[in-house]
Amino acid sequence: MPEDIITKMVVIAESELPSDIAISAYKVSSDVTIKETCYGLMVTGKREEVDKVVNEVRKLNPTKIFVKERGFPPGDERRCRANRGGGPRPGFHQLKNEIDLLPDISKGLVLVERGSKPVALPEEKNLPVDIFKKIIEEEAAKIKGE
């Protein structure tokens, strides 16, 4: 694929259906390839057209629709499961982990929109070494005494 062709993944946190997002994406441009996935969409095409599509799609629900650029286009032999003998594609587990975090990120974005301020967390204090050594010695003594 030429270098000016990119793929962006549109990932839905919750409450939206990939098919609804795809319909909106098709309305924006016919110069991109749109593939529905279990997590949202993959939009492939020239950077300007892809950016135009994903920016419009994000406007539908900016706190629940996220965009990530994909390193390889769909069907790329270096990543395709058919050429690798099956199994999850490299990077799937990382994407799954990121998707699991999105509902919490969405809630945080909604709170920020409503004017919530971040809560100051107490600063962690390190345990002094001499106290740590004392704890180790006490625990070792308990084990020896048993």
UniProtKB/TrEMBL annotation:
InterPro entries: Methan_mark_6 (IPR012025)
Highest taxon in the source lineage: Archaea
NCBIfam families: methan_mark_6
Protein name according to UniProt: Methanogenesis marker protein 6
Source species of the chain: Methanocella conradii (strain DSM 24694 / JCM 17849 / CGMCC 1.5162 / HZ254)
